[in-house]
Structures are given as C-alpha cells and as structure tokens.
Amino acid sequence: LEGVKLEMETLSEKVREVALLAEDLRNSDNAPGGRRLSADGVAQGAVPDLPSVVARWWAAYPDIDSEVKLAIASGELDIMGLKAHHWLVHSPTALQSAFTHGGLESALDMGIILLKQLPGSSGWNE
Predict the structure, then answer these.
(1) Do residues 106 and 99 touch, judged by C-beta distance below 8 A?
(2) Reduced to 3 states, what is the DSSP secondary structure of residue 36?
C-alpha cells in the first residue's frame, strides 16, 4: 500500500508540473497558437503570409546579392520545415511512444520535456 501511495504522489506532482507549465504558456505574451482576435480582426500570434514577408525583406536589402538572399531565405525555410516536423510529427509520436512503452508516468515526463521546449515556457531557452 505504501508503494501505491508513493506512486500516486509522484504522478500527482508530475500532473501539477504539467498544469503549471501549461498555465505559464497560456499566460505568456508569445504563447503559440493564440486564437483570440485583435482589434483589426487578425488572430493574435498569427503569422503573416510568407510571400509578403519575404518580398518585404527582399526589397529592404537592395545592396545584397540576390543569390545570397536566396540562400538565406532557403535556409530559413528549411529550418521552418524542420521545426514544423518536430512539433507536428516527432513530438506527438514521442509522447505516444512514452505512454505505450512506459505508461502514464513516462508520458507525463515526456510532456514536461516537450512543454519546456515551447517558446513562452518557463523552461524555454532561446
């Protein structure tokens, strides 16, 4: 019985940590996935359309060679693709695998690790 109580306390602590991290993200100024609309009708935290951002950036640096700008833009797009894969494919798979192979406690541990990686999280490092 003592072992069960200890296990429950451990799981309770981990659930509290996940809840605190989620609350930090929810209250953060740069929390991902904001869905509230601002006064101009654009979702807060929404990303402007990529072609117009690239076009403005391209025009802002007329003295830089076009091939250099193309290399920079391509590199940034590659990084965006890797981040998208990480958050949309790798992270959910890691969480599911932790649960499947290690149970609830492992899934909570993985969730804590993943939450700390999000921008706006108290554990996030730039």
Answers:
(1) yes
(2) coil
Predicted confidence (pLDDT) at residue 37 exceeds the cutoff of 50: no
Read off the pLDDT of each residue in 70-88 and give the average, rounded to a whole number: 89
CA distances 124 to 30, 34, 89, 112, Å, are: 12, 18, 20, 11
* CA distance linking residue 107 with residue 99, whole number of Å: 5
Cα(36)–Cα(121) distance, integer angstroms: 19
Rounded Cα–Cα distance for residues 115 and 118 (Å)? 5
Count of other CB atoms within 10 angstroms of residue 87: 14
Higher pLDDT among residues 20 and 103, named by residue:
103
Q: Look at residue 118 and tell me whether its pLDDT is greater than 70.
A: yes
Are the C-beta atoms of residues 116 and 123 closer than 8 Å to each other? Answer: yes
